[in-house]
Amino acid sequence: MDNTVSIVKCASYDKAQYAVDAALELLGGIGRFVKKGDRVVIKPNLVSKKSPDEAATTHPQIVKAVIRAVERAGASVLIAESPGGPYNPAYLKSVYTGCGMVSAIEGTNAKLNYDTSFKEVSFKDGKTVKNIPLITPVLDADLIISLPKLKTHAMTSYTGAVKNMFGTIPGTHKAEMHFRLDDRRAFCSMLVDLYSCVNRVPVLSIMDGITGMEGDGPTAGKNRFIGVVMASQNAHALDMAACRIIDYTPDEVDTVKEAVERGLVCDSADKLNIVGEDINSLIIRDFIKPESHFNLLKLLSLPEGLNKRVVSALSSRPKMKYGECVGCGECMRCCPPKAITMINNKPVIDRDKCIKCFCCQELCPKKAVKIHRSLLNRLMLKILR
Questions:
Q1: In 149-255, beta strands by DSSP E
Q2: Distance separating alpha carbons of residues 155 and 201, to the nearest angstrom
Q3: pLDDT per position as a tens digit, 259-288
């Protein structure tokens, strides 16, 4: 269990190459991970077709910096991702273009992946899932370099290095995972299984934390300057460090909590081996959490067998902002339990079917879905505080 995390300050994306190279040097240099002739897959966070300025996806300057480092070591590079939505060449092309990946590979020998085949992989060590469909490029790679974005997340409170591997599951299979694992803790346990499964091909994680996202992430929050590039061989350690910077405790983020319980990372950020910057000088105390983070069910550790109506009354849920909705139907198409129907060109949510995965909020191109906490939830939290 390697708990080493490198942290380098970076004031702008113009300095991304310096920051990436410095973060890698603190871990022993790119040559420690990449060998001449290796087939390296770079897996950025390209959750949907978003401009780099929106801070929802890995910035192309970070991607380009990592490509250059890998190519200097004599390896080949393939950029691969299964974004939210369909997994086909046409959609991949639109996402790559919109997120700046076409510009990221300019002047390099790197390629963009358009192979949409996948394979069901057996993972007998999985706690929550034993079989996982994975896109072909990650199975063919000699090394995977994961480039997560430092952001909040409506369902999981935080998204980072471990959750970035969710983009190695093809297309609609991600929706199936949401539907099968509609409980937050079970879903996060699956993410830890997934990372362990993918990590059979070595994974190095380098986090884009220059400009991150706070509030109702991973796509509808607000840009927040954080000013760091971080790297680690252990995605769990990297996530714990990132959570420390945005003022989450390990218990507040289920992917981190699950990793601690499984012995995959130390139980406190104070026990991490931080190289580079002093992590305690980087903590942002006023980093805004998503509305869904303030969940009475989680705060009070109430039993899972509560009456469904009680759970619904206490839980945060998605709510449409009809004044901003353009009636595109993307929320309906991406909803795992098919809880959304279009009526008079507007989406309507069936609350009894909704599993509160917030895929509609995450993938809405117009940010027309908000996270709503019930009055009972808000009043009780106010009293408890």
A1: 149-153, 157-159, 203-214, 222-232
A2: 28
A3: 999 999 999 999 999 999 999 999 999 999
pLDDT at 117 over 60: yes
CA nearest neighbour of 229 among 167, 289, 164, 276: 276
Give the domain ranges of the chain.
4-281, 294-384
127 and 262 Cβ atoms separated by less than 8 Å: yes
**Which DSSP state fits 358?**
-
pTM for the whole structure: 0.94
CATH of 294-384 among 3.30.497.10, 3.40.50.10190, 3.40.50.300, 3.30.70.20: 3.30.70.20
- Residue 204's pLDDT is what? 98
For the chain, the first-to-last Cα distance in angstroms comes to 37
Q: For 50-69, how does the pLDDT look when each residue is reduced to its tens digit (9 = 90+)?
A: 999 999 999 999 999 999 99
**87 pLDDT tier (thresholds 50, 70, 90):** very high
* pLDDT tens per residue across span 146-194: 999 999 999 999 999 999 999 999 998 999 999 999 888 999 999 999 9
- The DSSP output letter for 18 is H
Dist. CA 383–CA 385, nearest whole Å? 5
Q: 101 near 112, Cβ under 8 Å?
A: yes
Bridge-based pairing of strands 203-214 and 143-147 is parallel
CATH code that applies to domain 4-281? 3.40.50.11440
What is the DSSP track for 324-352? T-----HHHHH-TT--EEEETTEEEE-TT
> Which amino acid belongs to residue 22?
A
Q: Which amino acid is at 136?
A: T
Cα 349 from Cα 147, distance rounded (Å): 34
Phi, psi (rounded to 5 degrees) for 302: -70, 150
